[in-house]
Amino acid sequence: MIDQRRRGFLKGVLGASVVGLTVGSGLIPLRAQAAAEVANWPETAFKTPGVDATISELYGMEAAESDQISMDLPTIAQNGAVVPVSVETTLPNVTAIALLVAKNPNALAAAFDIPEGTVPFVSNRLKMAETTDVVAVVISDGKAYKATQNVKVTVGGCGG
Length: 160
Known about the structure:
This is Thiosulfate oxidation carrier protein SoxY. This protein is of the alpha+beta class. Helix content is 24%, strand content 35%. It is elongated, with a radius of gyration of 21 Å. The termini are far apart.
């Protein structure tokens, strides 16, 4: 029985050494890259403060309120470091969904491109600095729509 444990341990150590050697030598790249091209990364939108300015920077238009966007998130978050949220819409021809947190230092929390023929549903966990509105923005037929829900944070997540 002890020999089996010892062999398992030695195999694990040997395997980890091989992986470490191949990553260290550059045979396997260490950095992960998103499927989309890096040129499409909305870097300035992630650095823009404020919801309306971020929507304008990200999509180049203003968003209208819509009752066809449903958000599922808690009204009271026990921990602002991990606030679960999901967004679903019945709007047609959805090409993008974004999640924004109004009072965070940077409002844009996540931006998703929705491929044609895909169900327009996203789920994520947000980090929230304080009690504020969470805004879901949906791009449908070339127009921007949004839904807003307030979340009360009892323990801060962003720097709190």
